[in-house]
Each structure stands twice: as C-alpha cells, then as structure tokens.
Design goal:
alpha/beta; 2 domains; six-stranded parallel β-sheet; 47% helix; binds xylulose-1,5-bisphosphate; binds magnesium ion
C-alpha cells in the first residue's frame, strides 16, 4: 500500500461545525457589547476568509466606519475571538456537534491497517481538542500522529503551510498521504502541498469549485475504505505520470 497517512481537515470535514462557529461568533458579539449579527448568508460569504480572526478583520473592513472606529474595533479582535472560542468550546463540549458520517469508520480502519492519521486545520487547537475529546473520548488526541492547527503556521488555507507542516512532522512525502477536505480553500491548500485530495462538501461549501479534487463524494460512504483510497491515489499518480 502506497498510502502511509490520512490528513483530515476539521471544520466541515470531521464534523459540521460551522453553524456552531457562527452561533458562537454571534453570542460573543452580544457578550462584548457589539450589535453585530452574522446571518447564515452573511456567514457563508465570510467563510471565504479562513481563520476566525482573519474573518473579523475582513468583516470590519466591510463596515462604513471612521478610521478611528476601525482602529478601535481592530484592537478588540483578539478579545472578541477569544470570547467566541470560549463559547464555542463550551458548545462543543456539551456534545452539540457529532462527527460526520463515515469519519469514525475511516479512523478505525486506519488504526487496523497501521496507517497514521493527522489533522491540518485553520481553527484553534483548543477547538480541535474539544471536538476530539467530546466525540472520540478523552484520550482521542493520542489517535492522531500530528495535529496541525491555526496559528502554528504563518499563512492559513488556501496557503499550503499547514499541510506542509503536517507532512514535515509526519516525515512523509506528499504522495504517501491523502488529504480529506470540505472546502475550496482547503482543497487549494492540500493540492498546493502536492496531496491527493478527497473532498466531502458541507452545507456551507456545496456550491464551491472542486474541479481540482481527486475525488468528490457527498460523504465518507461505506464503500470507500482505505484500500479504495489507496487504489485511487495510485491510479491518479500513474495517470499524472503520463
Ligand atoms: C475552518 C476555518 C476556521 C473556522 C473558525 O477551519 O476557516 O477559521 O471557520 O474557527 P478548517 P476559528 O481548516 O478546519 O476547515 O474561529 O478558530 O478560526
Ligand atoms: Mg474545513
């Protein structure tokens, strides 16, 4: 088998977390005294910017503000985002968000076949830890050889940095791994890192362009096992070689 590791994105891939993020942003705005409210259509647009702090920067840039008000709000992004992250992790720890279909099956199969699994995400480590411990048990972090998160790299997705970081920590070549993503930004990041990429679109990303993906599926369906991914990875590498 060529495949040595699966690298999972988190938000939208391991679990449909973006509605929990959206609600947590809105709760945080209330808590810090801001009359902002991100509707689903507004959030769907804002999701084109990865990273919660970067998303807040993009939102503030879109507001008709004086330079002084813009500076004052920009100075508060750190506390707004930390407030949101605290609210979000409590929401996740309450069990509000399950794993997406097929994720646990693939994790278990990888373990049986002695493949390593890793994470490459834009979100914060604390958000990832809350999701993994709540859905996979308190020793869940031990199941992942590498967890690449948020600010560990300078440039977030669609830059390849987080995937390159994870490959380096795994000490594996791109053609020994497969990335599993849900968004066009994530797909671009994984492909720029040279990875075979399987996309399972989420509610928020279903209209995005996945033409560069090696495989697009509505979910991690039962017929798709590690051996099928490995076979397809090999086929695409052979096809790519000609
Ligand atoms: C998706 C993101 C994250 C989340 C919000 O990450 O872009 O920014 O939307 O989480 P992934 P933060 O790469 O896992 O799909 O507020 O912690 O950034
Ligand atoms: Mg994602």
């Amino acid at each position: 088998m060529k495949l040595k590791a699966l690298i999972f994105d988190v938000d939208g891939t391991l679990a449909d977390t973006e509605e929990a993020h959206r609600c947590s942003f809105n709760d945080a705005f209330l808590q810090v005294g801001l009359n902002w409210n991100w509707s689903k259509p507004k959030y769907a647009h804002l999701l084109s910017t990865t990273g919660g702090k970067e998303r807040l920067v993009a939102y503030i840039a879109s507001l008709p503000l004086s330079a002084a008000d813009r500076r004052a709000l920009t100075a508060r992004i750190g506390i707004i985002h930390q407030t949101k992250t605290d609210i979000y992790t409590r929401r996740i720890l309450a069990g509000d968000v399950p794993l997406r279909d097929g994720v646990l099956r693939l994790l278990d199969e990888a373990e049986r076949l002695k493949l390593r699994v890793a994470i490459a995400s834009t979100t914060t480590f604390s958000n990832i830890e809350a999701l993994l411990r709540t859905t996979l048990g308190w020793n869940a972090l031990d199941r992942f050889a590498v967890i690449g998160a948020g600010d560990q790299v300078e440039r977030k997705k669609p830059a390849p940095d987080i995937y390159r970081y994870v490959l380096h920590e795994l000490d594996l070549a791109p053609d020994e791994c497969a990335a599993i993503e849900d968004s066009a930004n994530g797909l671009r990041a994984a492909k720029a890192a040279g990875l075979y990429t399987l996309v399972t679109p989420s509610y928020w990303t279903q209209t995005e362009d996945f033409s560069a993906a090696d495989l697009v599926l509505p979910a991690l369906v039962a017929r798709l096992g590690i051996r099928e991914i490995d076979d397809h990875l090999m086929m695409t590498r052979v096809a790519f070689a000609y």
